Amino acid sequence: MKTLLYSTAAIMVALPFAAAQDLNDPTRPAGSVDVKTKDTAPKGKAPRLANGKPDFAGVWSPDRNFIYDLSDALKPGEELPLQPWAAKLSRERMSHDDPEANCLPTGVPRLAPYPWVIAQTSQHIYFLFEGNIHSFRQIFMDGRKHSPDPNPTWYGESIGRWDGDTLVIDTTGFNELFWFDFAGHPHTSKLHVMEKYRRPDLGHLDWESTVEDPGAYTKPFTLYGHSLLQNTDLMEYICQENNKDVSHILGKDQRNREGRKAAGKQ
User: What is the pLDDT of residues 231-253, one digit of tens each?
Assistant: First the structure.
């Protein structure tokens, strides 16, 4: 029962953000940080590991711009550079067919609307997700190179390195099964994602995701994400258990750029 209540709350909270956000307003809240909660993150300096590198460990909030429509994570005024076939497919996709709605992993760079954890070791960094199937990303920090022919997976093969205080993650080897967002934006096996994560202080996590996929987009594009440190723990949320959402999803989720334009909310 606790899990069901939490899931419902997450959905209800996300709705006003989608409706109220003006993408052309440079003073708008960043990512999922609402004007009423942006100052609630703990204050202080970013912690560091014994080796002097930033410690990203903690429970982090999801960024709604990486959930409903990746267009929202672009700089104001920018559009996703979709190839014609990809734009057509994203319009035709219906929300009940979304793999994420059917309890499958989100892929990269998408996030689920639930908290997530970063855990670090000397050889790996892990992203642990509360949503869906408690899936995880593993980022190899041991200096290895990409496999010459990696097995295509949902989260790809992620190789990390430090550039000063910035964590740089280079990921290839994706399958073509996940959607980028609820809006249905596609990708191909040519997808290559470069991410740069920074922890400017105790309570904030910022990142950039540069997406290159010549199979579906006409040029690379960069997304900007923001998360707040959460004073909570991950819950045991099993998406497959009593999942009744899909049977009630009709048509296309309107919490995307095209849907908000049609509704006169953007």
Answer: 999 998 888 887 777 777 777 87
**What are the structure tokens assigned to 72, written together?**
């929202």
- Bridge partners, 197 (sequence order): 167, 207
Over residues 15-37, the pLDDT tens digits come to 333 333 333 333 333 444 443 45
Tell me the DSSP string of the chain: -HHHHHHHHHHHHHHHHHHH--TT-TTSPPTT--TTTTT-SPPSPPPB-TTSSB---EEE---GGGTS-GGGGSPTT----B-HHHHHHHHH--GGG-TGGGT----SS---SS-EEEEE-SSEEEEEESSTTT-EEEEE-S-PPPPSSPPPBSS-EEEEEEETTEEEEEEE-B-S-S-SSTT-----TT-EEEEEEEEEETTEEEEEEEEE-TTTBSS-EEEEEEEEB-SS------TTTT--SGGG--S--S-SHHHHHHTT--
- 2-262, what's its fold? Lipocalin (2.40.128)
Domain ranges of the chain: 2-262
Residue with tokens 């073509």: 176
Tokens 């099964």 sit on residue: 177
Alpha carbon of residue 235 to chain centroid: 19
pLDDT along the chain (266 residues), means of 10: 36 32 36 50 94 95 94 96 98 93 94 94 95 88 96 97 97 98 96 98 97 98 96 88 77 77 66
Tokens of 126: 């892990």
